[in-house]
Amino acid sequence: MSVYFRSSGVFELGLAGILLVTILLICTTEGLNSDGQHLLELKNGLHDEFNHLQNWKSTDQTPCSWTGVNCTSDYEPVVWSLDLSSMNLSGTLSPSIGGLVNLRYFDLSYNEIKGDIPKEIGNCSLLQYFCLNDNQLSGEIPAELGKLSFLERLNICNNQISGSLPEELGRLSSLVEFVAYTNRLTGPLPRSIKNLKNLKTIRAGQNQISGSIPAEISGCRSLKLLGLAQNKIGGELPKELGDAWELNRIDFMGEPDLGFLKKLYLYRNGLNGTIPREIGNLSMATEIDFSENFLTGEIPTEFSKIKGLRLLYIFQNQLTGVIPNELSILRNMIKLDLSINYLTGPIPFGFQYLTEMVQLQLFGNSLSGGIPQGLGLYSKLWVVDFSDNNLTGRIPPHLCRHSNLILLNLDSNRLYGNIPTGVLNCQTLVQLRLVGNKFTGGFPSELCKLVNLSAIELNQNRFTGPVPPEIGNCRRLQRLHIANNYFTSELPKELGNLSQLVTFNASSNLLTGKIPPEVVNCKMLQRLDLSHNSFSDALPDELGTLLQLELLRLSENNLSGNIPLALGNLSHLTELQMGGNSFSGRIPPTLGLLSSLQIAMNLSYNNLTGSIPPELGNLNLLEFLLLNNNHLTGDIPKTFENLSSLLGCNFSYNDLTGSLPSVSLFQNMAISSFLGNKGLCGGPLGDCSGDPSSDPQKNTDAPRGRIITIVASVVGGVSLILIIVILYLMRRPTETASAIHEKENPYSESDIYFPLKDGFTFQDLVLATNNFHDSYAVGRGACGTVYKAVMRSGKTIAVKKLASDREGSGIENSFQAEILTLGKIRHRNIVKLYGFCYHEGSNLLLYEYMARGSLGELLHGPSYQGGDLVTWARHYVRDHSLTIGILDDRLDLEDQSTIAHMISVLKIALLCTSMSPLDRPSMREVVLMLIESNEREGNLTLSSTYDFPLKDDISRK
Amino acid sequence: MASCTAFHLLLLPFLLLTIQSPTNANLEGDALYALRRAVKDPGHVLQSWDPTLTDPCTWFHVTCDGDNRVTRLDLGNAKLSGSLVPELGKLVRLQYLELYMNELMGPVPKELGNLKSLVSLDLYLNNLTGTIPASLSKLSNLKFLRLNGNRLTGRIPRELTKLESLKILDVSNNDLCGTIPTSGSFSKFTEESFLNNSRLEGPELMGFVRYNAAGRCK
């Protein structure tokens, strides 16, 4: 305050005369008036990179000559206008702005201002025009803004302003325009909005405004534009949007409340309910956009009362019923989009007479009947999209009569006949999409005179005859899709003229002859699909020069010759399909350079010979590799261990030999992937004992035997698992399993593996078990003997020593198999594999130690209530049926769903331990039963397919 | 032997439920267009990305399913620079997000965790910074997660161990810190997945290293 007094006092003195020159000299720096001081403070908060404000100097007496500042021309000039827009200013807006009490016009738009809008703005009580748009302001709209009773225009769009719109906004009684789109505003629209009688424009789209549209909005009787698109507004459209007209006549005896509303944008919100009939009272509306909401019900015929309607977008809602014929009287309609709803019935006949219609989109409904044949006669149609309906009949002949049509999309209907000449000669046409109809005739060569055409999509029709040489004239063509038709003969060499072609799909036709070498001139090609035809002869070598190719499908043809080496140059290729041809020779090692190959490499069903190039192991993104049904020899390269992304592969029916790569992927692959080879072994094919090449016959027979072994294993195995599960459920219900943290150990041929930092050696194990002395043995199984070992750390583990006295390398295989399988499984009811140890022929598996002894004892030993567990359970069920009495009474019986689930699992377990193997369900059945039991959450009835053979079983016993 | 081979078969059953959702073709086009605006594209690979089309399925490097929903985005090795955009999280049917070997900068948007169909997230060999968003643990179908060769910092979110389908994890050659989780799906990854993160400490072992120890993560 003192500064204020002093400076203004000095100013007066300065005007008075020169008597106090010395004082003035001392005080010039403080000679600036208060507005100037506030502005300097404002400048201090800003960063003015380009020195736009360099003439804002404290040595001036008034700021009136400063850039962007305008003063009144009074005796004592005051700042009334401040225009700092587009000056690359950054920094923050200082609260000192509130000192400019005479400010009427303030524009700070198009800068990079950060921070909050200062609440002091409320002191600028004369402010009429306030623009902060296109900055990086954050924080909330200050409630003090409500004090600006003269404010007419408020623009804060394109900032990061958050919080809800303050109720105080309702006090801005002069407000005409409120623009706040693209911020982070939340909360509902304030109900006080009804007080804004002068408000003409609300634009608050692209925020997160929620709630519903308040009925009070009808109070905004001057409103012309309501833009609230792309918010989170839910609820129903208020009837008051329209029916205020009636109220208004009574209440205000003036104009209807929203009767002037011209533009209503509410797209991309969460609106639901029906569109109120009162919508028809918005008689002055020109544009209504309710698209991308959840509106239901029918399209109200009352839209037809809005005579001036030029744009009506209601696409992507859930509207039902027919398109009202009454819409045909909306003579001014330019753009109509009712797509992606559930509309039925025909396209109103009257639409063809709407002379202003430019854009008509009705796709993604269930419209039926024919397309009005006069469509296009009277209007300059530009975009017509009726795709994904059930329309029948023919394409209207005059769609392009006024030479304006750029897009015609009739995909997925039931249209038939030829493409009318009116369309074929449509010079403006850019995209023609007729996929999935019943169109007939030859390839429409007239299309190729259309200089603008970039897409021809004719897939899945009944077109016949050859693809004519004229196709070469379509110089702008980017997409040519003619798949699934009956095109015949050779492809014309003129295809090579299509220098802009990006995707070409001619699959599933009757095309013959050589693939024209000229196709390699289509240098932009990204997708080339010629599969399922009868192309013959060799591939053009230069195919490898189509460096943009991402997808190359040539499968199911009669192509022959070598696979061109140059294909390895296709560094963007994600999918290579060449199966089902007669390609011969070797697989080029260059295919290993296809570093983007991800979807598949399919070379199956050819006549390829030679060995598989190890370079293919570089394809580290590849998910599916199909080399089956060729004449490949040699082994599956060790480098294939690097195919880390592989999800599936097929090497079957070749002449391959040797062992599968030792990674789990190959070891666990279905056996069918390797069938029909000369001598593959390892993994599912069994051990590699002996010299496979010397006895191929034995090995080709091996798979069947293996399958039987596996099936048997599965049945036996599942019984064991289930019983473990049940034992835990029954006996140890309160024990919470601790999280599993062990790391699986990578397998290789060296000495010892155990989780890092806790590693101990073979010698430690020898010591802990007194060289595997019998006194340390706690159990014996088919695979070996289990010892209890107390390590020096005090940790007790179980060591399973695989029987080492057998012949051959079979043990190593079961050793590997067990590591690979158990190492992957982490389940609280399955014994944890800590690690494994391979030392000079001894194979040791290190497990969690289970103090309660072996499973066999529990099941069949006399330790359970005088008999073995299985027998006990069977007797119990025979005497009491399968009731909850069988469960340990220490269980928390309140959880009914768990109990029911346990009983149904027990039921499965009893099935699995049936005496007769025939009564035991297959693995698949068990899995199905488990799924079923999980789904039912305790419903005890298993489906009749799995009848319970318990009685028979016991009687047999 | 019998019991040994049978164990893993129990893990096979999966029930895949596909739920039909309303078409959001415009939304997906907008999301992709947001990406186009956020990147520099000197090779003009995104030239065909025209936001005025009804859906993005005709855009090049975009693959859609039968409902015109985007399933693949193949923009590996495409010389793109700039940043990823949170809008990508709206492509809920996206299975393959291939943006490897570009010059993308900035963070991995946490919104990518909304891509519930995602099978493969390949962002390797870019210049991405910031942390690995824990939200990626929501990607229950994710099989391939390759983030190697960036400048990612912070810990490896432990939540990622919940990714049961995860088959490949590569976060090597970054600047991650903390310890390597070993539980859940991480139990099958070797140290190779984590190489060349100088502040990353050895595999976490139950009871040995406290996961949340500050370590060299300060």
UniProtKB/TrEMBL annotation, chain A:
A GO CC term attached to the entry: plasma membrane
A Pfam family assignment: Pkinase
Protein kinase domain location: 772-957
InterPro entries documented for this protein: Kinase-like_dom_sf, Leu-rich_rpt, Leu-rich_rpt_typical-subtyp, LRR_dom_sf, LRR_N_plant-typ, Plant_LRR-RLKs, Prot_kinase_dom
EC class: transferase
Catalytic activity, EC: 2.7.11.1
Cross-referenced SUPFAM superfamilies: L domain-like (SSF52058), Protein kinase-like (PK-like) (SSF56112)
Protein name, as recorded: non-specific serine/threonine protein kinase
Reactions that this protein is recorded to catalyse: L-threonyl-[protein] + ATP = O-phospho-L-threonyl-[protein] + ADP + H(+); L-seryl-[protein] + ATP = O-phospho-L-seryl-[protein] + ADP + H(+)
Keywords: ATP-binding, Cell membrane, Glycoprotein, Kinase, Leucine-rich repeat, Membrane, Nucleotide-binding, Phosphoprotein, Receptor, Repeat, Serine/threonine-protein kinase, Signal, Transferase, Transmembrane, Transmembrane helix
UniProtKB/TrEMBL annotation, chain B:
InterPro entries named among the record's database cross-references: LRR_dom_sf, LRR_N_plant-typ, LRR_R13L4/SHOC2-like
Domain Leucine-rich repeat-containing N-terminal plant-type span(s) in chain numbering: 26-65
Listed SUPFAM superfamilies: L domain-like
Domain called Disease resistance R13L4/SHOC-2-like LRR: residue spans: 73-172
Keyword Repeat: yes
Keywords noted in UniProt: Leucine-rich repeat, Repeat, Signal
Organism domain of life: Eukaryota
Signal peptide: 1-25
Name by which UniProt lists this protein: LRR AMINO-TERMINAL DOMAIN PROTEIN
Species of provenance: Salix koriyanagi
Phylogenetic classification of the source organism: Eukaryota, Viridiplantae, Streptophyta, Embryophyta, Tracheophyta
